[in-house]
Amino acid sequence: MATQAGAVSLQPRRATGIWRLLSTTDHKEIGLLYIYSGFLFFLLGGLEALLIRVQLTQPGMRFLSPELYNQIFTMHGTTMIFLFAMPILIGLANYLAILMIGARDMAFPRLNAFSFWVFLFGGLVMYSGFILGGAPDAGWFAYAPLANPEYSPSHGMDLWAMGIILTGIGSIVTAVNLIVTILNLRAPGMTLLRMPVFVWMVLITAFLMLFALPSLTVDAVLLFLERNFGAPFFLPAQGANPLLWQHLFWFFGHPEVYILILPAFGIISEIIPVFSSKPIFGYRALILSGLTIGVLGFMVWSHHMFAVGNSPASDASFSLSSMIIAVPTSIKIFNWIATLWGGRVEFKTPLLHAIGFIAMFIIGGLSGVMVAIVPFDQQITQTYFVVAHLHYVLFGGTVLAVFAGVFYWFPKMTGRMLSETLGKWQFWLMLIGLNLTFFPMHLLGMDGMPRRVYTYEDNPGWALWNSLETIGSFILGLAILLFIFNVIRSLRSQEQAPDDPWDGHTLEWATSSPPPAYNFASIPTVRSLRPVWDQKYPEFTDEDSSKIDPEPPGSVTIPNTDPPQPTDHTEPVEGNIHLPSSSFNPILIAFGLTVVSYAAIYALWFMPVGILISMAGIVLWNWETP
Amino acid sequence: MEEQKKLTGHEPYQPTTLGIDSRKLGIWVFLASEAVFFSGLIATYLIVTVRSTQGPYPNEVLSLPLVSVNTFVLIASSLAMVIALSNAEENKIHRTVIWLIVTAVLGLVFLGGQVYEFIHLFHNGLTLDQNLFGASFYTLTGTHGLHVLSGIIWIILVIFQLLKFRGDASQAAMKVELTGLYWHFVDLIWIIIFTVVYLLYT
Asked: What is each CA distance from A364 to A357, A360, A398, B74, B192, in whole angstroms?
């Protein structure tokens, strides 16, 4: 059962210290929890990437054993997709989309906390393999029969399946929460076509998660039943067709690509207009192309399977649908360039990352069109060309966009500015590092170097390119260290960031930095796409006066001066602000599900204990006044 | 909730942009996701069952009369849920509770029938690891059974909430309606499973 943001007592119950962390239901705190945990997993995944690169520096190296190498590259992919990219984007959405639509919290604050904890525990379940006798080792897409017990005898893939189910539950619940919040808790005047592009992209992403993740959950359930209870879903000896795994996986897997990139598009679409001092070019085209990508994303999954022997007709149609996706994507890129064109462009760190994103994403997008061509794909499938492509879109795309967003919103979230100088150093190091690491992979891939193999023959040129890639990966590592230094330095500084440091357009800049628990002292009324800009510069407004809503009686416009600063942010300003109380039941339910997961693998008889813990959480959840 | 209303002078649930209760919208959105989940399981069943290389096969072990009775019980439980909701909307809390109990009991009867069927099948040699039919049959119907069980637990929680409920009648009806949406959905899924698993192969 769920509650609404409004259904709260006047003075919310709040724990303090660590207990507050474990019981928070505030969307901003949960957003930060997502972002910090996502970043920690990013460091783990990055460490694994460095281990992979060291092992591949020279042919025939024995830095990692083949078994450990399998575990490391499996966890690298799993971590970066499920434990870093998705959570950190969900975290940004959690924090910012709510502010941008002028709401006080998510529609279901306690479910929001549950989503976070079940994601975190899911990630820890997968990682616990390293201390429980073997991490997952069949690759992040866990192809059957490679993931069958015959080839992956440790409990690693069982932990992987359980972790996937747990994080999947978290993502689906978040998707429901985000959809309901964005559709139902918008500020007065915030029509769908006045929502910031970021909010639109989050909404589309939430629908993608809603419809794509169940397919992965089914797959993980089947794999788990096969590995632990002998259900022969993927055993050819029993007549099964292991391709079932791939179809179910990629029906999730390709929409997943857009789950990772659409919010990134949204971040870029917020940053570019602000640093060009212009409204976004082609707002409706951006949204429509996002919707098109979301729909087409469900029609292309089989392009990951051109080499498995599907019929030529099937391959041809999936090839065509994949190439069509380049059209809406290009529309977006032209929109961003047109926004920059003729603007008063300020090359601050967020914009540098955004422009780096556009350039790198074009490279990754073009190699994407190349691999959508069947004969080409059949040549380079399972080679480093594919690795190059996916890293240009995920590192050059998603990661650069995440850093753009972090630099842009850091003052809002923490009340501190990041150093521009260090940020620019970080950007250039990352740009050089990522091209040095990933560009040679195109060449090695076309030369036939297979991916996912722990070492390689001393073929002409391979050692040189691989050494350069390893150097590039350490430059990336250096850039990340610089970022960590920058963050710590800023957080320890005493200098308060302004509420609106970038001359922003959207509602998050109308409140203090960091925002009070109640977000806005009074809910703003929205009259255009750029409410904060119009408030600041009425002479340059793009408000269409014919479409302005009549001002609702008694409404208060956005404060363009400092909002009221109460001594204690938990004290409501106006008496009628509702805030969700904290609750330990979300983490209790998530913990119970984690116990169930371990019991399913190691000791079935222990399962009732986990079920009872979760049930206790559910019963107490219904008991408490939200 | 009355207490809250007095404290704040507000309805505890704030007005929404679309004018739909957020919880109701949430359930609908969640059920859309569940529909994809069951589509995956049903598609898996359809794809793999026919590939079984050893018996028992569906037409050898599945018993249509038993499942038909069970299906009827589940549909009857949906009817009971409809009656419960219409009573809740008329603010007849006690009748609502009675009909919710009827719904939950019919759900339990359905689950009992399913357990009986599983035992029967087990004795006929159909296990999870016997063949692809067994694997996908138990996975699909078992997952559905777990959904019915969750629904029963939800109904019981609602019954307890209604028994101590002293607030606005529309909020009581909303609680029943949310449960009802889920319950009817699970019922609908069963009708598809009944068609695909039982009618198609026996």
From this structure: 10, 6, 11, 52, 43
